Amino acid sequence: MEAVRKQTASQSQKLMIFVLTMALYGLSTLFTELIPHYQVGVVEFSVEYFLFIPLTLAMLFDPMSAALGAATGELVFSEIMLGQFGGLGELEKFLTVTIGVYIAGRMVKNPRNYKMVGIAALTGTGLQLLMGTVVDIMKVQFAVEDFEAVAGLPESVFATEGFAFLNDFLFSGILFCLLPTLFLVPKLYGKIEPLLGMRPRDGKTYLGGVNAKVVIGCVIGFAAAAAAELIATSGMPLIDWEAGWAESSTALAVGLIAAAALAVIVIAAIRMKASKGQAEAK
Amino acid sequence: MEGKTKKRLSESILDKFSIDFLRNQVLKNAYGNDDTVIARLDPRILLVWYLFMAIVPWFVDDLWFLLACFILVAATTVMARVAGLVLFIFALGVFSQTGYLFIVSLFFGGNASTIFPLLMLTLKVATCSLASITVFSGLDPDRLSNGLQWYGCPERLSFSISYAYRILPMLMEEFQNILLSYRLRGNPPSRETLRGKIRYLAYQVKVVMLSFYPLMLNTAKRSRTTVEALEIRGYRYAAVNKAVKKIRLSSLRAGANDMMFLAVSVFWICGAVLVSTLI
């Protein structure tokens, strides 16, 4: 009985962490989405990552809930609310953010240890950015047919993506992830946990470092992310499908049009009748 | 030139904190257009329509088909009366995804032949984005989350959507208050010289970062209250209970309007296929 009650308590606390991270990170991604990016020379100044928020919370609380909350918050606040939802492709960002934040959260044993917090913050950010870069390069390679044949495109993709990665990592990573996390984690430690009715993270409540299970889980997650992005982008698998229906496509198209036109007429007739009936009833 | 860029930089950082503007735009986007044709359609039908528009264009390389899809989603976006800010972000997003790539590939010795594949890519990206703008900002958040739940999306997601729209105005206001109180008490460095401007910018960014400290503590309290209120009403039990779900979704009804919308869309797309096969 005692064990069961403990379980429910931690479940609702997980929900609290989820809601907390979702709201905060969602708010900040909304800002980043709305802020125009500025370019000075070749260096792009953008407040790309408020990733320090989920990083901080993942180091203080249950990392999985914080990671999922961050990814959901980004999805809901900045993608769905602003109508920027990219379908299956969003799965990639969702998974990479989850993996980056989760790993960073698992790495920290003692939130008072500045060195570990710093390393974890940079690892989380770097992982997330690196996965995004790899998927982006693959995406362009598959989306544009004859990738190699288009003059100057391969080099430009590698150059822009590689540069964007370095720029994001050095600029946003250090300024907007490392420094605020270093500031916030020790300061919030021991203060924010009681507000959610929890014990601060210590040797007992610590989940254990990054082990093989976590790594395997993350690799599978990344594979799923890359696969989702490629399916969402690539034109390859459907070439066969296209060729299949191209044979008698004119006939097929005429048939489909006739059916659709019939449907439009029938529904229009039904609506006319319905509105007439309403008018008569009045 | 250098100073001008820096000035623009610091101004843009300042501009974005007119939070009232952002809040208004987001709220307008969420609740401001309940009376449009799109908002009155059944969310389930719209989601099916969205799936088609978001997936199929990626697999087709026919220019006529892509153009037809684009015109269709552009028309529905106009019908949904989307907020201006969202459209601006859309334009920016499309450019940053493909237009930017084109300019860079010119530097690496690309020429006009680079345009065509990139034009295809742009059309595809634009079609998908506009379809999602139509569906996700044309629909009321509650209807949208009901529709998603009908298709078996996790309760967590539809809860997040409904919660996000309600909590956002409050969070924004609170963030603004904290930011203002920091400004009232703070002593910003002078921004006369170039160095001063850079220091001023750094100071602004620092204040934003610092503001998250009280915001995190406040939001932690609030999220505990929220979850406790949810628990009292049996949220976690209701979330997995089939009978509750049925009651909640019973308000969804697909009528003649929805069928009409689907039929017109199918008619238009088939017309495009016909044209492309004839040419």
What multimeric state do the chains show? Answer: heterodimer
Main interface by residue count: A-B, 97 and 98 residues
Number of helical runs of chain A?
A: 10
Note the main sheet of chain B: none
> Main β-sheet of chain A: number of strands, strand sense, barrel status?
2 strands, antiparallel
Q: How much is the radius of gyration of chain A in Å?
A: 25 Å
Count up the helices of chain B: 13
Major β-sheet strand ordering of chain A: 1-2
Relative strand content of chain B: under 5%
Q: What share of residues are in beta strands of chain A? A: under 5%
| CATH class assignment of the largest domain in chain A | Mainly Alpha
Descriptive notes:
The complex is a heterodimer of chains A (282) and B (279). By secondary structure, chain A is mainly alpha-helical. Chain A has two domains: 2-237, Arp2/3 complex 21 kDa subunit ARPC3 (Orthogonal Bundle), CATH 1.10.1760; 240-281. Chain A is 75% helix and 2% strand. Chain A has helices at residues 2-34, 52-60, 63-80, 90-107, 114-143, 153-188, 192-195, 212-233, 239-246, 249-281, and strands spanning 38-40, 43-45. In chain A, strands 1-2 form a two-stranded antiparallel ribbon. The termini of chain A are far apart. In chain A, 39% of the residues are buried. Chain B has 279 residues and is mainly α. Chain B has two domains: 1-31 and 167-240, no CATH class; 32-139 and 255-274, no CATH class. Chain B is built from 13 helices and no strands. The longest helix of chain B has 39 residues, at 194-232. Chains A and B meet through helix 1, helix 2, helix 3, helix 6 and helix 9 of A and helix 1, helix 2, helix 4, helix 6 and helix 7 of B.
